[in-house]
Structure formats: C-alpha cells, structure tokens
Amino acid sequence: MAMCPYCNGLEKLEAICTVCGSTMEDSGKVSDYLDPYGHYNDEKTVKLGDGYTNTSKDDICPHLLSCLSCGHDQVVFIKE
Q1: Could you tell me the pTM of the whole model?
Q2: pLDDT confidence of residue 4
Q3: How many Å apart are CA 29 and CA 4, to the nearest integer?
Q4: Selection from 17, 36, 40 nearest residue 28 by Cα
Q5: Residue 39: its pLDDT value, please?
Q6: Coil, strand or helix at 42
Q7: Is the four-CA dihedral 74, 77, 24, 20 of positive or negative sign?
Q8: Phi and psi dihedrals of 10, rounded to 5?
C-alpha cells in the first residue's frame, strides 16, 4: 500500500514560492478542501473524486501549498 510521506508526518514538505521567493506552507491534501467528510472514505475513493485523473492509478498525493507572504497557492504532486 502506497503512503504519502507528508500526510503521515514522515517528512516535512518545503517549497519556495515562485512569485515572491518566501517559504510556502503545506496546507495538506487538496481533497480535504473538496469534501469535508472525505476523510471518512477510503483513500482510493477519495482519489477518484479529487479532480485529477491519475492520482489513484499512479499513487500520487496532491498537496496544496500556500504562501503566507503574498497569498499565492499552488498544487504539487507527491509520489507515494
């Protein structure tokens, strides 16, 4: 079973904002913002409804990164 190292606290996601150069904050899985009750479903079901066609097939976890300095948001895809 694939596991996201960032969702499970094994690693810390660090990224630099492409707009202002500040450190971005990991805001968690994109699916957490799409369905407030999604965490009650199994991971494969959540991935089928996350809006990305290959997350389930390729074991990828989309994370939302937010810049607290300029407000820029971006999604990064993490290999599980």
Answers
A1: 0.81
A2: 92
A3: 10
A4: 36
A5: 73
A6: coil
A7: negative
A8: -80, -30
Least Cα distance to 38 among 62, 65, 6 occurs for: 62
Question: Quick check: 58 and 51 in contact, CB under 8 A?
Answer: no
The pLDDT assigned to 33 comes to 85
**Which parts of the chain have pLDDT scores under 50?**
none
For residue 28 the two structure tokens come to 């968690």
Q: Which residue has the tokens 């997350």?
A: 55
pLDDT of residue 20: 97
Q: Which two tokens stand for residue 20?
A: 């202002």
Distance (Å, whole) CA 65 – CA 9: 16
* CA 10, 39, 77, 67 torsion-angle sign: negative
Closest CA to 31 of 18, 21, 20, 46: 46
Alpha carbon distance 30, 75 (integer Å): 8
